[in-house]
Amino acid sequence: MLKKIETLEAKQFEKARAEFAERKVQFEAEKKKKEEWGLLGVKKKLQASKDTLAAERRKWR
Q1: Residue/partner pairs of 54-61 with CB below 8 Å, 24 or more apart
Q2: What is the pLDDT of residue 14?
Q3: C-alpha triplet 23, 29, 35: angle, nearest 5°
Q4: 12, 22, 39, 59: least CB-packed within 10 angstroms?
């Protein structure tokens, strides 16, 4: 009986461990995706600022 309980607990532990590993992978993928989107957003804002500055310079010349 004790052996069955230990085996059952071991199976539950392995299942929980596998679920945790899967969630960790999903979290890391989402984190990377958010970082990439954030970087793209910053790049777009920088480019827009450069374009605006170039337009202002053309007006003054």
Answers
A1: none
A2: 92
A3: 135
A4: 59
Element (H, E) at 11: helix 2-60
pLDDT digits (tens, 9 = 90+) for 17-42: 999 999 999 999 999 988 888 888 88
- Residue 13, both tokens: 């532990």
Cα dist from 46 to 23, 36, 43, 52, whole Å? 34, 15, 5, 10
Is residue 57 classed exposed, middle or buried when 0-12, 13-18 and 19+ CB atoms within 10 A define those classes? exposed
What does the H/E/C string look like for 26-46?
HHHHHHHHHHHHHHHHHHHHH
